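Meet the record:
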Amino acid sequence: MFVDEIDIFVKGGDGGAGCVSFRREKYVPRGGPDGGDGGDGGSVWLEADPALTTLLDYHYKHHYHAERGRHGEGNNRSGASGDDLVLRVPLGTVVTDRGSREALGDLTRPAERVLAARGSRGGRGNARFASSTNQAPRRADLGRPGPERWIHLELKLLADVGVIGFPNAGKSTLVSRLSAAKPRIGDYPFTTLTPTLGIVRGEDDTSFVIADLPGLIPGAAEGKGLGHQFLRHTERTRLLIHLLDTDPNTGRDALEDLGAIDAELAAYSAELAARPQIVVVNKADLPDAVGTIERVRRHCEAEGRPCHVISAATGQGLRELVRAVTARLREAGWARAAS
């Protein structure tokens, strides 16, 4: 199960209570207050872990409490502080307060942390209240209760390139041919139900991360189809590969598909609509696709949009596509050195 959005309850640890105690030693004629302070409660932290790819763990457990502080003891012994609770989340997790919608953090780097709930201070023991006028105080503070709240976790995949298009356009096949990723592939719409990441290695010791995103349909920005809930994963991409299906048996027109998906991107986010795109015409191996390919090519030339013709099934044009993607990423300083 792929979980990319969830609410969880977090509570900082309660502070330990201070102690009321007096020295009672046989050979000390004048004792005094020696109650220790309570320990501080532990805090709840969220930490980015590159090994995780989903928020699935939080689907089964929603409540998380940090350890409370220990109570103070006599002989001026302070209680031990509670341990912090560290919750690990995938890279790209955005953390917000569910009630106020306040942004708490955006975890985009390994081991980066966000404080979700701070532990409370422990109470003071009676030794803290001793003075020249009150040499035997019989009061101590209780530990403060830990703060608690619901927080919203939203995962946005960290990918350099996102592959978008209508269902069954060949997105999963393309990603599987370019990388070692193994997305689900089928000859029916909505085969891809969850995003898949893969690493593509170029010919010049560079690499980029590519994401196979579920298919979009008209009205996706308003909640139609399956792809609407995954539009958020395109927000972090540097470049979009807009994959068009030229199979005449689908009953769709490639140019109409191009305009429909562009309209959905614009409806979802103006910034996303302005993201650099490479139009890729797929299924060039089909004999009836020649006319559609030429129409799309002329349209892209007129609009000044880069266009590549490929066949994800046979591998035609894939090497040239990788070169073009790497060049676009390198222009903006986004291409990474292959490891």
User: Anything to note?
Assistant: Residues 185-192 have pLDDT under 50 and may be disordered. The chain is about 15% helix and 25% strand. The longest strand covers residues 148-155.
